[in-house]
Amino acid sequence: MSFPKYKPSRLATLPTTLDPAEYDISPETRKAQAEHPALIRWTYARSANVYPNFRPTPKTSLLGALFGIGPLLFWYYVFKTD
């Protein structure tokens, strides 16, 4: 199945996602973007390395229990004390 070629309208500009300068880059440029050290560190820090940014403390543990169990206890009290 072939899709028809997009023809820009006279009244509207070409969307940036269809601009050949945006998506039609050389393999060398693609490789340079993929091997950029700062980009690799940033994607690792944002996706795979999540837990080192969170340190469980007594405060966060108590708040987690409060927000996890608190609403259940509240609704139990509301429905059982008619």
UniProtKB/TrEMBL annotation:
Coiled-coil ranges from the UniProt annotation: none
Protein localization: Mitochondrion inner membrane
TM region positions: 62-79
Pfam families, alphabetized: NDUF_B4
Key words of the record: Electron transport, Membrane, Mitochondrion, Mitochondrion inner membrane, Respiratory chain, Transmembrane, Transmembrane helix, Transport
InterPro entries: NADH_UbQ_OxRdtase_NDUFB4_su (IPR009866)
GO cellular component terms, semicolon-separated: mitochondrial inner membrane
UniProt membrane topology term: Single-pass membrane protein
Subunit relationships: Complex I is composed of 45 different subunits.
Free-text function comment from the UniProt entry: Accessory subunit of the mitochondrial membrane respiratory chain NADH dehydrogenase (Complex I), that is believed not to be involved in catalysis. Complex I functions in the transfer of electrons from NADH to the respiratory chain. The immediate electron acceptor for the enzyme is believed to be ubiquinone.
Family: Belongs to the complex I NDUFB4 subunit family.
Protein name (Swiss-Prot/TrEMBL): NADH dehydrogenase [ubiquinone] 1 beta subcomplex subunit 4
